[in-house]
Specification:
Chain A: GO terms for molecular function: transmembrane transporter activity. The complex is a heterodimer of chains A (about 325) and B (about 525). By secondary structure, chain A is an all-alpha fold. Chain A is built from 15 helices and two strands. Chain B is about 35% helix and about 25% strand. Chain B is globular. The chains are: A mainly alpha (about 325), B alpha/beta (about 525). At the A-B interface, α9 and α10 of A face α2 of B.
C-alpha cells in the first residue's frame, strides 16, 4: 500500500541513489560531515522551489514566476535584513509576505482574470524580476553571519538545511495539504468540472494554491540568501524551469491532480547535485549542460516506458 | 385512452420542490420551454422523456449547475435562486450526475466526503472519522466489496456509480436526484439501492429518478412525469399508464419531413462492410453488422449505449479488443485513422469543432487537408488546382461562405458540417460513418444533408448513420440496428422501422404489438 502510494516518487529515489553512489565512488570525501552539509545545501533551495511549483502544478497550472519570486525574496532579504535579531525576524516575515502577495496576484489573475496560468506567470515573472532589480540594482547587500550559519550549518552529520526543509514541509505544507483545502487543490486539478459540481469553490482554491506557492518560493529565496550571504536580483532565473523539471521528474502530472512532495524534493537534489557529479567525473564544463539535459531525458524516458504501453492512442492524445 | 393531465397527488403529501415556467436555451436551441415540475415530500418520482426532451437540463438547473433563463424554483415553499452547486447543496439538493463528477486519483473515502470531510485539530481531516463515516454509509447499503482506500480510477464503472451515489447520500439531502444514476448497476445493486431509498423516503426525503429502464420505474417509483421537447407532458402514478401510452407521451405529434427516395439495394449484392463481434473499451461489447453498397444502415438506441465507440473503433481511433472487419470481402486491419482512410473509411465525427475541423483555418484549407497530395506535385500544392477543387466542392455541397479564405469558425453549424463532409468526399472513401451529423443544425441544411447522404448511396457508397433523431433513421435507412448496452438489441428492416419499434427496442420493452401501434396512430 505504502509502496504503491510512493510509486510515482520511486524513479527519482532510484536515480538519486545511483547518482550519490557514483559520486561517492569518485569522491569519497562526500561521506563526511562537511560533504553532507555541502550536498544538503546544494539541493535545499531547489527543493523548496519545487514544492512551490508542485502546489500550483497540482491544480493543473504552472508557475513560471517561481524563479522571479526567489530572486525578489533574495533581493529584499539581503538589502533590508540588518544585524539585530529583531530586524532579521521582521524582514523574514516581510519577505514571506511579499511571496504571499506575489502568489495572490498570480492566483487572482488565473482564477478571476481567466487567463492561462502560463501567460499570467510569464507576465508576473517580468514584473517581479523588475521589482527585484529596483530593490537591488547591483549585486550586493549582506546578511548577518548567524543568519547564514543557522540555516546552512551542521551539527555533526546533520545539516541544518535538512531541518529547514523538514520544518517547512512538515509544519507548513503538510497541514495545509491534509486540510479540506489540500483535498480541494487535488480535486480541482483532477477534475475541475467535477469539483465545481461537488460544491468546491474552485476559484478560491486556485488562489490559495498560488499563495501557498508564493510563500514556498519566498522560503527558497530566504534559504538561498543564507547560502550566498548577498543579494542578486537575477539569481532566481534558473529555479523556474528546474522546479518544473523536478516536479515532473518527481512523479507529478503537469495536467494536475497527481503528485506528492517526496518525489519532487528528491528530484530537486538530483538536479542540483548532477553538475558537481559531472565535474567530479571530469566532464569538460563545455559539455556539462549537454550531459545534464541528456541524463534528464534518459531518466524520464525510462520512467515512462511502462505507462504509455497499454492505453488508447486517442485517449493519450486527448488527455 | 384516458391520460391524467393533472398531477395525481399522493394523499397527505406536501410539495417539497416546485419548479414553474422554467425555460433554458442554448444558442437558439430551446432545451426547456416554460416547463413545470413538482415533487412531493417523501416520494420517488421518475422523470421520463426521449433524447433531448430536457430532462438533463432540468436536473442541471435543479442542482445549481446551470441557471434558468426564466422561471422560479421553490423548495419547501421558499423561493430559491441557486448561484452554483454549493447553493443547491446548502438547500439540501444532492445530485448523482450522468457524467460522473468523481476524482479518479483520489480515494473512495475522499471522493464521497469531498468538500465536507470531518476535520479535527487545526482543520486537519480526521482519517479515523472519515473511515467511520464511510463505513456507516457502506453498511446502510450492504456494500462491502469496495475498499474506502482504493483509488476511484481502479474501480469498475458500476462501483464508481455506487461511489457517486454515496457521495450524494453523504450530504443527507432533502431531495436526491439520480440522473441515470443506476445505468451501470446490476439488478441486485439496484434493489438494494431502492430498499435504502424507501427508508429515506419514509424519513421524508424525496427522490427524483431518471432512468430508461421501464421495469425499474414500474417497480420502484411512486409517480412519473413525462417531458417532451422541453415541455411537461403529464404526471401520472407509476402504474396508471401502459407502455404504449408512455411511448406515445414521449413521442407526441410527429413532425413530417420529406426525405429523398431510398436507393434500392438488392439482397444479392455482396456486402461492402462486414463487421463481426467487434468489441472495444468498456461500452462496446460485441457488434456484428453488414453494409451493402448503396445502403444506409442506421444505428439507434439511447445515448451512450456504445454507438460512439462503435464508429470510432471502425475508424481506428479506438483500439479494438475483439472482432474482425472485412471490406469488399477482404479482411481489413484498421488500427489507426490513417489506415482507415487508406481502406476507404471516412468518419464525420461527433464533435465537428474539435475532431472534424481546424476552426481558425480557412474554408479552403479545411476542405483540402485530406487530399493535398493530389493537388500538386513534389510536395507543393498548386494554388490554381486547389482553387478549382475548392470551388467545385463548395458548389457541389452548396457551402454558404462569402469567400474560401474565411476561417471555418465564422460559418454556421450546418455549413461547418458540410466542410467536414467535403474533406472526405474526394478521398475515394467507400464507407461513410456519420456520427449524429445533423445535431444542432437548421432544418434547411438538414434537408440538404439528407440529399447528400442519398447521393452517396446512389454512387454506390455504404453509409453507417448514427442519429439521435429517430425520424432521420426512418426516412433514410434501409435497416436500423438498435443498440443497448454495447450490443445490437434488434435490427429493424423495411416497414418495421417505426418510431415506436425503435423506442421499444431501445427501452427493451419488447416490440409494441400491432394493435397497440394502431391505437397510437389513431389517437393522433
Amino acid at each position: 500500500m505504502i509502496l504503491r502510494r510512493y510509486k510515482s516518487s520511486l524513479l527519482a529515489i532510484l536515480a538519486l541513489i545511483l547518482l550519490l553512489g557514483y559520486y561517492w565512488y569518485k569522491q569519497p570525501l562526500i561521506l563526511s560531515p562537511f560533504g553532507f552539509r555541502l550536498l544538503a545545501n546544494q539541493g535545499t533551495t531547489l527543493a523548496l522551489a519545487a514544492l512551490a511549483q508542485l502546489t500550483v502544478v497540482l491544480t493543473g497550472g504552472v508557475d513560471l514566476s517561481v524563479g522571479a519570486i526567489v530572486g525578489l525574496a533574495n533581493a529584499i532579504a539581503a538589502t533590508y535584513m540588518g544585524d539585530s535579531p529583531f530586524s532579521v525576524v521582521t524582514v523574514v516575515l516581510l519577505t514571506l509576505g511579499a511571496g504571499a502577495g506575489a502568489g495572490l496576484i498570480n492566483g487572482v489573475l488565473v482564477a478571476y482574470g481567466r487567463i492561462q496560468p502560463i501567460i499570467v506567470t510569464l507576465a508576473t515573472l517580468y514584473i517581479y524580476s523588475g521589482f527585484a532589480l529596483l530593490i537591488r540594482p547591483q549585486p550586493g547587500g549582506s546578511v548577518p553571519s548567524y543568519y547564514a550559519t543557522t540555516l546552512t550549518g551542521s551539527w555533526g552529520y546533520l545539516p541544518y538545511s535538512l531541518i529547514v526543509l523538514l520544518v517547512v514541509t512538515l509544519l507548513f505544507r503538510l497541514p495545509i495539504m491534509r486540510s479540506r483545502l489540500g483535498t480541494a487543490i487535488y480535486a480541482v486539478g483532477d477534475n475541475p468540472g467535477g469539483a465545481h459540481m461537488s460544491g468546491i469553490k474552485v476559484n478560491r482554491t486556485l488562489v490559495s494554491a498560488y499563495v501557498i506557492g508564493g510563500v514556498l518560493a519566498a522560503c527558497a529565496g530566504l534559504f538561498l540568501t543564507a547560502q550566498t550571504t548577498s543579494g542578486d536580483a537575477t539569481i532566481g532565473t534558473a529555479y523556474t524551469l528546474n522546479s518544473v523539471a523536478a516536479v515532473v521528474f518527481g512523479g507529478a502530472i503537469l495536467g494536475g491532480g497527481r503528485g506528492l512532495a517526496l518525489g519532487p524534493i528528491i528530484a530537486a537534489f538530483f538536479i542540483s547535485i548532477i553538475i558537481s557529479v559531472l565535474f567530479a567525473a571530469g566532464v569538460s564544463s563545455f559539455y556539462q549542460s549537454v550531459f545534464q539535459g541528456g541524463i534528464l531525458i534518459f531518466v524520464l524516458m525510462f520512467g515512462n516506458a511502462w505507462t504509455l504501453r497499454v492505453r488508447n492512442r486517442l485517449s493519450v492524445l486527448r488527455s | 385512452m384516458a391520460l391524467q393531465q393533472e398531477p395525481a397527488r399522493p394523499s397527505g403529501g406536501k410539495t417539497l420542490l416546485s419548479a414553474r415556467g422554467i425555460s433554458k436555451s442554448f444558442g437558439g436551441v430551446h432545451a426547456l420551454q416554460a416547463a413545470n415540475f413538482a415533487c412531493e415530500r417523501g416520494e420517488i418520482h421518475a422523470l421520463l422523456g426521449a433524447n433531448g426532451a430536457g430532462k438533463s437540463t432540468l436536473v442541471k438547473i435543479l442542482s445549481g449547475v446551470q441557471r434558468p433563463d426564466a422561471g422560479t424554483i421553490a423548495i419547501a415553499g421558499e423561493t430559491v435562486d441557486f448561484a452554483g452547486p454549493t447553493d443547491a447543496v446548502a438547500h439540501g439538493v444532492a445530485t448523482v450526475f450522468q457524467e460522473l463528477s468523481l476524482f479518479p486519483h483520489r480515494t473512495v473515502a475522499e471522493n464521497i466526503f469531498i468538500g465536507h470531510e470531518p476535520t479535527g485539530f487545526l482543520g486537519q481531516i480526521s482519517q479515523s472519522r472519515l473511515r467511520a463515516a464511510v463505513g456507516d454509509l457502506f453498511a446502510s447499503l450492504g456494500v462491502d466489496h469496495i475498499r474506502p482506500n482504493a483509488l476511484v480510477a481502479d474501480l469498475s464503472l458500476s462501483d464508481r456509480q455506487l461511489v457517486e451515489i454515496f457521495k450524494a447520500l453523504s450530504r443527507k439531502p432533502r431531495l436526491l436526484i439520480l440522473d441515470e444514476g443506476t445505468s451501470a448497476l446490476g439488478r441486485k445493486e439496484v434493489q438494494r439501492l431502492f430498499a435504502l431509498l424507501r427508508k429515506l423516503r419514509a424519513g421524508g426525503t424525496s427522490v427524483i429518478f431518471i432512468s430508461h429502464r421501464m421495469s425499474e420505474i414500474r417497480e420502484f417509483v411512486d409517480r412519473m412525469t413525462v417531458f417532451r421537447n422541453g415541455h411537461h407532458v403529464a404526471t401520472v402514478a407509476a402504474n396508471a399508464a401502459s407502455d404504449a401510452e408512455i411511448v406515445e407521451m414521449m413521442l407526441g405529434q410527429r413532425v413530417e419531413r420529406s426525405f429523398p427516395t431510398k436507393t434500392v439495394v438488392s439482397e444479392a449484392e455482396a456486402p461492402l462492410l462486414e463487421v463481426a463481434g467487434l468489441a472495444a473499451g468498456s461500452d462496446l461489447k460485441g457488434v456484428s453488422l453488414t453494409v451493402r453498397r448503396g445502403e444506409v444502415l442506421g444505428i439507434a438506441g439511447l445515448e451512450g449505449q456504445g454507438q460512439g465507440t462503435l464508429l470510432l473503433t471502425l475508424f481506428g481511433a479506438y483500439r479494438r479488443a475483439a472482432g474482425t472487419v472485412r471490406i469488399d470481402g477482404a479482411p481489413a486491419r484498421i488500427g489507426t485513422p490513417w489506415q482507415a482512410k487508406a481502406r476507404g473509411i471516412a468518419l464525420i465525427p461527433e464533435d465537428r469543432k474539435t475532431e472534424g475541423l481546424v476552426l481558425p483555418m480557412s474554408v479552403r484549407e479545411n476542405i483540402t487537408f485530406s487530399v493535398l497530395a493530389r493537388l500538386g506535385r513534389f510536395g507543393f500544392v498548386s494554388p490554381a488546382k486547389e482553387r478549382r477543387f475548392v470551388e467545385s466542392m463548395m458548389q457541389r455541397l452548396a457551402v454558404k461562405a462569402a469567400s474560401m479564405g474565411l476561417p471555418a469558425r465564422s460559418l454556421s453549424g450546418g455549413n461547418q458540417q458540410k466542410l467536414v463532409l467535403a474533406k472526405w468526399l474526394e478521398t475515394g472513401a467507400d464507407v461513410f460513418l456519420f456520427y449524429d451529423p445533423t445535431r444542432g443544425i437548421d432544418v434547411g441544411t438538414k434537408q440538404a444533408f439528407y440529399e447528400l447522404i442519398a447521393g452517396l448511396t446512389r454512387e454506390g457508397k455504404g453509409v453507417v448513420l448514427y442519429s439521435t433523431e429517430t425520424s432521420e433513421l426512418i426516412g433514410l435507412c434501409q435497416r436500423v440496428a438498435v443498440m443497448d448496452d454495447g450490443r445490437i438489441a434488434e435490427t429493424l428492416e423495411g416497414d418495421a422501422i417505426t418510431e415506436e419499434n425503435i423506442l421499444a427496442a431501445s427501452l427493451r420493452m419488447g416490440r409494441a404489438r400491432p394493435d397497440e401501434a394502431v391505437v397510437v396512430e389513431a389517437a393522433q
